[in-house]
Design a protein that fits this description.
The protein has 399 residues and is α/β, with parallel strands linked by helices. The protein is 35% helix and 24% strand. The protein has helices spanning 53-64, 79-82, 85-91, 101-111, 187-199, 203-213, 233-244, 262-276, 292-301, 318-329, 350-362, 379-397, and strands at 7-9, 12-14, 19-20, 24-25, 30-32, 35-38, 42-45, 71-73, 96-99, 119-120, 126-128, 133-138, 148-153, 160-164, 220-223, 249-256, 282-286, 302-312, 315-316, 337-344, 365-366, 371-374. The strands form 5 sheets. Strands 16, 17, 18, 19, 20, 21 and 22 form a 7-stranded mixed β-sheet that branches. Strands 1-6-7-8-9-10 form a 6-stranded mixed β-sheet. Strands 11-12-13-14-15 form a 5-stranded mixed β-sheet. Strand 3 and strand 4 (24-25) form a beta hairpin. Helix 5 (187-199) crosses helix 9 and helix 8 crosses helix 12.
Length: 399
């Protein structure tokens, strides 16, 4: 649990919850990370979800015994990190909460908490703990309005960034805490899925936060979810930089809805044609089977997107409508390419509805001719599907 001489990990793992925020699957669980600085003053940085308070309190006492906690820094007010504030106050009645103006507004609203001796900080303010000093970096909308980060520094000592949800990822910690202690292979795509589904809408605020930290040499990044980053700091910062600038890799996501398999056959023809034309990174998803968080993850990763679905009740197939709304809600900018296709039994609506979504909300670059299939795949519609796949491949590969 020791990170540096005076900084300790006191977080917990949640292997029971199946959906994060009631939305995102957690096949490998999730960690709620909290940190304790044991200097002349004792300071907690963020707490954990309240259901885990008993274990959390044991972790704290294992480090400091009967010492009191002097400060609790709240970088982020989501309840999975702030949920134990009231209980910390009960067990450590002298503790002063450190946060910004919006932190305390939210803390009062969520928990009815707030005292006159709490410490309100602004960007650049400092708080000495003894040998170590905290300084505060305001990072609003990464990804709530009150979010901030805390730097812990001292002459000759490692610089540690307590980053809140930034640089976090899904996945419980299986023994080791610091990246150098563990195999991080499972965390990289989970970091992209975490970013794209939770932070992804806020690319500009993330860029603003990165600019504030650009001149700071970091030895450790202590996020509220996932490993403590040390060896891979450049990789995780670079990943956030690329994602927040909506940079993509060469590749293609094909998503389809299908009732009886006919629209699925169209997707298969498109994928095969794109592959034959030279695209290697292709993922194909049934929107009714794969959780949309994984689809959104890969839409953030890859430049090309082709979507297709049947007409249903004279409108667009429901799960495709939901996915398009989710994509629009992420406000994805940049150079994404979009092709689309659809099918119908007697009334053609799907193709037109997908185009309307792109014209009004997505604003991706259209590629190829949309394919509208009536009832079942024919030689003509097969050729149209192949042409759509080749057109996307040509656009992806030309650069």
């Amino acid at each position: 649990m020791k990170i540096t001489d005076k900084i300790f990990y006191v977080g917990v793992n949640d292997r029971q919850k199946s959906l994060f925020e009631g939305l995102w699957p957690l096949p490998n669980g999730v960690s709620y990370n909290s940190y304790l600085i044991a200097d002349e003053k004792v300071c907690l940085v963020d707490t954990v979800e309240v259901d885990f308070f008993t274990q959390y309190l044991e972790n704290i006492r294992e480090v400091i015994g009967d010492r009191q906690v002097d400060y609790l820094v709240v970088n982020h007010m989501e309840p999975d990190h702030s949920g134990s504030i009231a209980l910390i106050r009960k067990y450590y009645p002298q503790v002063k909460v450190v946060g910004n103006k919006k932190t305390f507004q939210m803390m009062q609203g969520f928990y009815g908490e707030g005292r006159e001796d709490d410490v309100e900080v602004k960007n650049g303010d400092t708080l000495p703990l003894g040998a170590l000093t905290l300084s505060f970096v305001m990072t609003p909308m990464v990804h709530w309005p009150e979010t901030m980060m805390t730097l812990c520094q001292a002459d000759g000592a490692d610089t540690v960034l307590f980053s809140g949800d930034a640089f976090g990822c899904f996945g419980a910690l299986n023994g080791g805490i610091i990246d150098a202690q563990i195999n991080c292979d499972t965390f990289w795509l989970e970091m992209v899925r975490y970013y794209s589904n939770i932070v992804g809408k806020y690319g500009t605020p993330v860029q603003n936060a990165l600019k504030k930290l650009a001149d700071v040499h970091l030895d450790y990044i202590c996020s509220t979810h996932g490993p403590v980053w040390h060896e891979y700091i450049n990789k995780v910062v670079g990943l956030y930089d690329r994602l927040s600038r909506y940079e993509t890799e060469p590749g293609l996501v094909i998503c389809y809805g299908t009732m009886y398999g006919n629209t699925e056959r169209m997707a298969e023809q498109i994928a095969r044609a794109a592959s034959d034309a030279g695209v290697k990174n292709i993922v194909v998803y049934n929107v009714s089977k794969t959780h949309h968080s994984y689809i959104l993850r890969d839409i953030f990763r890859y430049r090309g997107l082709i979507v297709g679905a049947p007409t249903y009740n004279t409108a667009l197939y429901h799960e495709m409508e939901v996915l398009l709304a989710e994509i629009a809600g992420k406000d994805i900018k940049g150079n994404h390419l979009l092709g689309w296709f659809g099918s119908h039994g007697w009334a053609s609506k799907a193709v037109g509805e997908i185009q309307r979504w792109n014209d009004e909300r997505l604003h991706f670059e259209p590629v190829g001719e949309p394919v509208d299939m009536k009832q079942a795949l024919t030689a003509e519609t097969r050729q149209q599907c192949e042409a759509l796949g080749r057109a996307m491949a040509a656009r992806l590969l030309e650069e």
